[in-house]
Amino acid sequence: MELDNIEKLIAKYFEANTTVAEEELLKKYFAQGNVPEHLASYTPIFNYFAAAKQEQFDKEVVLESDASAKKMKFNYKWLSVAAVGLLFFGVYFGNTYFEQKEKERMATEYAYQETKKALDFLSENFNKGTEKVAYLNQFEKTKQKIYNNN
Questions:
Q1: pLDDT digit string (tens) for 56-79?
Q2: Cα dihedral: 38, 41, 43, 48 (round 10)
């Protein structure tokens, strides 16, 4: 009769319908040792709970005092102040760097335009010079004709 009752309690246990008293009865039954062979597979489950109940945490728990909590808040305040300072530093010097690069770009653009003007002027004068050379070539041909006829 007891075996039949235990089997019903196990079924009820796995359906999550047992009471605390019924679970205690199952734990006691499986802790006794003489369990039928077909129920032996459930023994480790119920013995685990008994062993787990005996376990205790034996390490020391260190709690923070109020002074260390205030110290951490203090550090976070200074950390935020440092972050804001770093942000302003970056904006100031970043803006200065950008302005310097812009001045360099403008100076480079100005130098390019002046060089372009100088090369255009040189090209213009060179072209005038080549026109004069063409007149000299014509003069040379005419001179050769005169000397060859005489």
A1: 878 888 777 665 555 555 667 778
A2: -170
